[in-house]
Amino acid sequence: MSTLSAPYFHDEALAHEELERRLWSTGPVCPKCGGRNRITVSRGGRVGLYRCGPCKRQFTVKVGTVFESSHVPLNVWLQAVHLMTSSKKGISSHQIMRILDVTYKTAWFMTHRIREAMTEGDWRAIEQDHAV
Ligand SMILES: [Zn+2]
Q1: 28 alpha carbon to ligand 1 midpoint, in Å?
Q2: 32 C-alpha to ligand 1 centroid (Å)
């Protein structure tokens, strides 16, 4: 079975769950106030959207990570991460564009961000404070 057959590569909600497992080992953490209590799931909204009771901020696990502020579904991001980290000689933006069927601009943005995270060794490689 191909490693790319893992369900979280093909389903956005499962991709969120996968990233949440990796980044929030003890449950959701509010990126605004750092709170862990009274965080509820925002139903009917975007995939993986949470709401912090104390500060009323809505957020997903992507806030503060290299996956933030992108229209590309998280499962496609995880495919790009897999391709880039499993390719011994590296992979070009053009290859990412062709394999994932995204525009060159999107592919370039993704490879740039992923390389940034690989260099830092952390998905939370970007420091930002703005809305989801
Ligand atoms: Zn909060």
Answers
A1: 10
A2: 5
52 backbone φψ class: left, alpha, beta (φ>0; ψ -120 to 50): beta
The answer to whether the CB of 52 falls within 8 A of the CB of 64 is no
Q: State pLDDT tens for residues 26-84.
A: 999 999 999 999 999 998 778 999 999 999 999 999 999 999 989 999 999 999 999 99
- How are strands ordered across the β-sheet holding 50-52? 39-41, 50-52, 58-59
The Cα–Cα gap between 65 and 82 comes to: 16
* pTM for the predicted model, two decimal places: 0.87
CB burial string 89-122: b at 16+ within 10 A, e below: eebebeebbeebebeeebbbbbbebbeebeeeee
Query: Is there a contact between 31 and 63 (Cβ–Cβ < 8 Å)?
Result: yes
Q: Are the beta carbons of 66 and 116 closer than 8 angstroms?
A: yes
